[in-house]
Fold this protein.
Amino acid sequence: MRLILLVLCAIQAFRVHALVDIDRNGTVAENAFVDPDLFKDIPLSEEYDFIEEAVEIPEAFISKLNELEAKLDLVPNSTQIDLKAGRVESITLAQPILPGSGVRNRLLWSVVTGEDTTHGSPVTSEEWEQIAIQAVKNWMVDHASDLDVNVDTELFAEGTVRTGIHGDGDIIQLHIPRIFKGVPVVGARAMATIKLGNLINVGFEDWGTIPSDFSVEPTLTAGEAYDAVAAHAQRSLLQGNNCDPELEILTMTPSSSSGQFGEGYNYVLAWRVCPLLEGQDNEVMEGLVDAQSGQIYSFVDKVDYFQAKGGVYPISNDKRFPDGVQQPGWPMPYMYVGNELTDTGGNYFQSGSVTASFNGKYVLIKDNCGSSSLSGSGGLDWGTSGGTDCSTPGVGGNGNTHSARTNVYELNKAMEMARSHLPNNNWLKQKLTVNLNINNNCNAFWGSGTINFYRSGGGCGNTGELAGVIVHEWGHGLDDNDVTGSIASPSGEGIADIYAALRMADSCIGRGFFTSGGGCTGVRNIDYKQSGGTPKTFSVSNRSCSGAVHCVGQVYSQAVWSLYKRTLQSAPYSYDDNTALEIVTRLTFIAAGNINTWFSGNPPYGGCNSGSGYREYLAADDDNGNINDGTPHMQAIFKAFNDQEIACNTPSVRDSGCAGMPNSPPQVTVTPGNMQAVISWTAVSGASNYQVFRTEGVKGCGQGKVKLTTTTTRSFTDNGLMNGREYYYIVIPKGPNDSCFGPASPCAAVTPTQAPVPTTPSPTRRPTSPTKNPTPQPTKKCGNGFCDMDEYSSVCPVDCSNLQLSVLDTGSRGSPGVMFWVKSVSRGLQVSSFKFYSWAVQSSLVQVYTRTGEYTGYELDQTGWELVHEATIDLLGGVTMTELSLPNKVAMSSGETKSFFIWVTQGNIKYDVGTSEGALLGSDNFIEVYQGIGVTSKFSGVFASNVYSPRRFNGIISYDIVSPSAPTGKPTTPPTKKPLTSSPTRFPSFNPTKRPVTAVPTGQPTRRPTAKPTAVPSAIPTQPPTTSTPTNRPSTNPTSPPSDSCDNGICESNETSSSCPQDCANVILTAHNAGTNGAPGIMFDLIASRDVVIRSFDFYTDAMRNATVEVYTRPGSYSGNELVVSGWTLIHSKNVTQMGRNTLTTLGDFDTGVTIRAGSTQSFFIYTGFYIMYDVGNAEGQVLASDASLAILEGIGVVSKFPGEGATGVVFSPRLFKGEIRYDAVTLTTPKPTSSTTVVTPTKAPQTSPTTTTICFALTSQLDCIASSRCIWNTNIGACRRNVGSKTSKRL
């Protein structure tokens, strides 16, 4: 049997990754430190007691191991042993555990998924994931005693297993962290690989025995751990941190080990803390502190340093033609332009003037040179320019730099390439933040989920202008977010180099990094023949690298490059360059995902460890579920890795499989079209299917490519291309398994072109003379069963109302939520209801959320979603459809896309498995619905385990066609950017282009004429009075009100909260009942018809909870200030008990009341992190409710607090506040003059800053007020106010 020898370099988890060595002197990291006992593998030159060659293996263990190999039908002596752990480390087998076509696999499908019971093969990645986890768990439970592993208590903790699903379950990888008494054990894991249903590799890494009495209760607090790290760093602690403190169990390899079998590991409980320290800059410092003694085990910087269309540097800015010269007019893919997202060719279709910045679906640029913004019509060209760093073309803002344009292009192309191989990797679907032109030089880094690039200087180029550096840093991110979820060891630099090399097809990493010199001007060349002539082997690494991660990383990056450029292109394979590149690209994207440690042990066989690079490449190359009988390219893989001393001598090396595979290339023809290319090819004998690849740019086919499709047909249409740009295609015939490659076709080029528009007019009929009997007028079309272009639901409801799109199927699956998007094709419409099936007959709360555009990226993030309806209804089961009518219909303008999320709190909504998320599911003349997802957890923030994709909504969508010239009922979203001026409205076609200057009528008549005109006139206008001054009410003594008016329930004009607290103190203006829609915030205006002081608000929430509520205010209307904090004052921020949708949530009185003078407007913004309930309104700015003193206007719902100008999908308009406004009626100093005899039409208050008066609300008695040291009685306003001494009250 093979004895695995664990000798290498420092464990990668405690190393900093840099392209060039970093000078730490004078920085917060100058005291960086790693305890030698944390080194997993000790260099041979170190004094170390655990000498593995001298370890005596107990006979009992050998006997047990022989039984295991016989039981599992393993190749004798093939099992790897970790002598320090005294356990099996790696097993290579061919054990069927799932139905599949692997050798000796006779299993059949009858499964239970995480959704519902079903029969047949899994369809989606999440179904494969759940089934694979259960199958591997069952296998490990069955063999737990053989492996001496506590499966039930230390493995498969909920939510901890990470998987990689490839090729519809062809390969399934599992990463299973070790958890001991609820605490993660750093570096220890189990792993498994399934191929064609067969379990082909099982491993247990760093799996020593933890004593059963090991305590996970810390003696030190997290705060004390922070103090210990600060003392070690000799720097003061600052407020905040870069990670939450967490308890971990560290695996130690003590130098004082006994040297006995199974006694090579010790364990300690430690705090992991990431403090902010004095002088800290880009560093993310992590400390590991013994949770019992306070000993520091590690203090390191965790940052991974690298030490539309526009001008782009294809590879470098080094001026070498053609790929080091700026190329004008390259596409800006997946960028938001106006309300659209550009495609891979940078195309968008919105007419008129649009505005864009370097912000897209997958990439957000933050440039230290400034911001970017470009507006125009008929296309946007960001241009080109000379210079470097902050040089711009003079358009697009100071942030339109070389590095910004290059990053937008290169990152999107690298991600597109990766997604084509890893469609289930969710990190590749998220937005990546890129920080550019940092005021430093000669470096770049990956850290805190961002990539960061420096300016030129110090003999180095601008790293953000170098495609190789860009993809290298992005490669760190992919390594950190693959199956293992962490940076690989012993160095993450190697895989980052590999990703860059495969994308560029260039072994010189970061060409142009150094601005002088010839040859490779990058930081290293991973082709050993161009960097010294001999491989940097495992032995060389042990002798000369001293653990430096760049040096160590070349051991395996050179192996992968040799596999591509040498062993696959030599006999007996003799592949062409394109075929070899795609073989290695496929192997790398699959294999690298589940590699925890690329190599370890001792040379010459450093690849025998579980989950090594060599073993994972073999697993990815296997074609039949049995590595022991060889793989299609095993000899090539072995030679490339063995030249670096990181292969393994078991299993035996031989090529096998792929019988009858194609051996000749197809001939390809490419036909250009408008923004598309049609690729067709000849048939190839032995081909089971064909794969089509595309690339673009100055290097032609000589670079990494996007895998477009795998198909059994012989043609494919590639859409979304840039007209006038050349694209390149190859087609590869594939054998019976995805590992089986035939030779690629010759490279075919095409330039898409828009077809010319005919210039000759269409022929017309010859005029005819009028007939004696003119044709009668056409009959009325309404009622003909079709909603014609001049018909709408308001004029022809029989044809244009309650139209239905049915997308019914069997509904074999289900979950509590279903999410999909809908597009209005040609007309404005309102979605009015949904019908669907449920799994059972039961009562449930049902909620419907919507958001503008596609939901992608917000599946479990509530940002941008608006709750448009909720109600408790009876779900009618799987036979009768449940109908969910929307009282507030969801408006959609022509061409608009909206996402919908239907959620039930009890039971499941039935749906079906789809074919592709985002593919068209059904359509009619007016509306399209697209395939979406099933969701098991509402806005949980956890992605993979809670989303099922793709899923087909199984039901009926009802809608009305509405006129574009009238309000579409109740609009739900604003345009991309709200105008800053008050003249245009959010919906120009729905509302007047200017806010009314005069106040609009109230929703109810006033109680009586007032002594002066109100700001809100009566709904029933009165005739002008004939007396010089209008009377307050009919009376025999009109000069003054009755003496007994106080306590009549009405706050008269001559009464105040002081003189008549019964009528004028704590007055409540009620705005309806609980609403059916909701968002985290609501914004509205109040107009006072007399002097008032706002005390507080009461409102409804979506659920009961304790949460903070904030209230902001500003003088005048909020219009134009919805997105920016400037001008707003925070007047209330407290944690309150939110009472849900049936009981008002009470904030309590504000510490400082907000005074509104008569005739003035004051705006308010109430915000919580959850949902405030409201209703859809009629017109923003229209009066919602009023009384004799105060009016509230229709406002807006807000999903994000002050996100900044240009934020989209943030505001929903119009919306109705639902709750109560509590105020006091007062009389302020310098009262306004009474009105003249002429009735004046009140105008909306000017947006000026009113005086703010502070009220001590609790004290209504003058005596009580005077007795308080904090308050003073103000006779002018007749109320108790806070004593502010001689200072003047500040304006809000």
DSSP finds 16 helices and 63 strands in the chain. The two ends are 80 Å apart (CA to CA). The first helix runs from residue 59 to 71.
